[in-house]
Structures are given as structure tokens and as C-alpha cells.
């Protein structure tokens, strides 16, 4: 439950912080006609959506299993992460087109020290959100928290380049402003695609990685009674995995003894952080 509490906290704090940034960046961006700042404000709008999805997705994912959802609601975390990624890619394409038009047609904006101040405020707030979300992610690993963490980090980098473009306008260098808008758009799109792929893999029941599989096989190796392992499969259940495998033991062992080995192994595997439930089938083998 601590995991879902963390996503709830991150979602609420993200919503409050991003609404504040959206308002000041949008007002200043449209007043000064800075393409980079307008792109930055649109990015804040997507951040609000991402924070809302984090909050809602975390609440649904925290619900326990029931008669209709025997494996719980954990996959909601990845479904809502996919919503976030799609919104990021759509926004990125729109900003990319606008920035290219600005670069081709040529655009200028009105320099203001308020623009510089807004950039600095954004970098400070986003840095604080990044480190706080990173702290929550270390305590309770979650794709929703990971998505938010990356989002805050990207915003810090993007706004830093926005600040550079604003300062360059003092030397009448305006083309960099549209270039920054293009860079921010590509960065948002790249991050969105990464999150989409990760979410898609879980929703399509991609098996656990080789590192986790090795951990399980190393545990099995400690059981000298187990002569062979077969039919090792895994399916994601939220952020954990349902593990199924067949073990082969000496056919001379009694039914009680062979199943006692399987029960002991199941209990040990079920203690692993990434295992939701293990199901072990026992087969006899001639030794």
C-alpha cells in the first residue's frame, strides 16, 4: 500500500506545481511571443494531465483483488502510464510543427527579465519535484512514479534551454528560440515513446527479465532434490509476476515428500518482491 500512497502524493503535488507553472508560463509566453516559452507552457499542460493520470491510476491500482479481478487491479498503473505517453507524443507533434513554422518563417519575441525569472522559478520547482519523486520511486518503484520523475527531469533540461534562448535574444539571436521549441518537442516525443513501450510490454504480458529469472533459478538450484526444471513461464500482474514452472524430483520419493518440496519452494519464491504468486507442478523422474 505504501507504493500506491507514494503515487497519490506525487500526483497531488505534481498537479499543484504544474498548474502554477502553466499559468505563469502561458501568460508570459503569449505576451512576449516566445515560441520556446509557449512550448514550455504546453509541456506544463501535459504535465498536469500526467499528474492526474498518476493520481487516478494509482488509486485504481491500489484496489485489492475481487471476484471480477482475481489478480487485482495492478495493471491500471500501466494502462494510465500509456495514456500519459500518448498525450506526450500528440503534444510533441503539435509543438514540433509550430516550432518548424516559426523557424522557417522567422519569428521574434519581446525580451523581458520576467521571462528569465519564470525560467528560473520553473527550474527550481521542477528540480524539487524531480528529487522528491526520485526519492518516492526509490522507496516504492512504480512506472507511474518513474514516468513523473522523467517528466520533471525533462522539464528542467527543456527550461534551461528556454532560458538560454531568452538570454540570446539580448544579442538579437532569435532563431535559437524556435530551435529550442523543436528540441523540447523531440525530447517530449522520445520520452513518451519510451513510456509507451514499457507500458505496452506489461499489458501484453511480457515475461520477466533475465535477472529476475536468474534469481529464481538460483533459489531452485539450492534444492538438491530438484533434478530438472521445465515450463518456466511468467506473466505480469501489476508490477509483480505470476510464476509457473514444473520441477522434476526422484520418482522414488513419496507423493507427500515431493509436494512438501514444492510447497517449500513456493513459499520462498512468494517472498520475492517481484513475485505475485508462484505455481509449481511436480513431476517424477527416474534417477
Class of the largest domain, according to the CATH hierarchy? Answer: Mainly Alpha
> Element order, helices and strands?
HHHHHHHEEHE
Q: How many helices does DSSP assign?
A: 8
Mean pLDDT rating: 82
The CATH topology annotation of the largest domain reads as Alpha-lytic protease prodomain-like
Which architecture of the largest domain would the CATH scheme give at its second level? Up-down Bundle
- Counted beta strands: 3
Shape: elongated
Helix content: 55-70%
Strand order of the largest sheet: 1-2-3
Radius of gyration: 25 Å
How far apart are the termini?
46 Å
Structural class designation: mainly alpha
Biggest sheet descriptor: 3 strands, mixed
Proportion of residues in extended strands: 5-15%
Number of domain modules: 2
| CATH homologous superfamily caption of the largest domain | Cation efflux protein transmembrane domain
- Low-confidence stretches at least 5 residues in length (pLDDT < 50)? none
Amino acid at each position: 500500500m505504501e507504493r500506491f500512497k507514494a503515487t497519490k502524493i506525487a500526483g497531488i503535488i505534481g498537479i499543484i506545481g504544474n498548474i502554477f507553472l502553466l499559468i505563469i508560463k502561458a501568460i508570459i509566453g503569449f505576451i512576449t511571443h516566445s515560441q520556446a516559452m509557449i512550448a514550455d507552457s504546453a509541456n506544463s499542460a501535459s504535465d498536469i494531465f500526467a499528474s492526474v493520470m498518476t493520481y487516478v491510476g494509482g488509486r485504481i491500482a491500489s484496489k485489492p483483488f475481487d471476484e471480477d479481478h482475481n489478480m487485482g487491479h495492478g495493471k491500471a498503473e500501466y494502462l494510465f502510464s500509456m495514456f500519459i505517453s500518448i498525450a506526450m507524443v500528440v503534444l510533441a507533434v503539435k509543438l514540433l510543427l509550430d516550432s518548424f513554422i516559426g523557424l522557417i518563417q522567422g519569428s521574434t519575441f519581446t525580451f523581458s527579465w520576467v521571462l528569465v525569472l519564470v525560467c528560473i522559478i520553473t527550474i527550481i520547482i521542477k528540480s524539487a519535484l524531480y528529487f522528491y519523486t526520485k526519492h518516492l520511486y526509490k522507496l516504492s518503484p512504480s512506472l507511474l512514479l518513474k514516468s513523473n520523475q522523467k517528466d520533471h527531469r525533462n522539464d528542467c533540461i527543456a527550461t534551461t534551454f528556454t532560458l538560454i534562448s531568452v538570454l540570446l535574444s539580448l544579442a538579437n539571436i532569435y532563431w535559437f528560440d524556435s530551435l529550442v521549441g523543436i528540441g523540447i518537442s523531440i525530447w517530449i516525443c522520445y520520452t513518451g515513446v519510451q513510456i509507451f513501450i514499457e507500458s505496452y510490454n506489461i499489458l501484453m504480458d511480457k515475461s520477466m527479465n533475465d535477472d529476475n529469472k536468474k534469481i529464481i533459478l538460483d533459489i531452485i538450484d539450492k534444492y538438491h532434490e530438484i533434478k530438472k526444471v521445465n515450463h518456466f513461464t511468467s506473466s505480469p500482474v501489476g508490477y509483480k509476476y505470476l510464476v509457473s514452472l514444473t520441477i522434476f524430483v526422484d520418482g522414488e520419493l513419496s507423493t507427500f515428500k515431493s509436494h512438501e518440496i514444492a510447497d517449500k519452494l513456493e513459499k520462498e519464491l512468494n517472498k520475492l518482491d517481484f513475485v505475485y504468486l508462484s505455481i509449481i507442478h511436480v513431476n517424477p523422474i527416474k534417477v
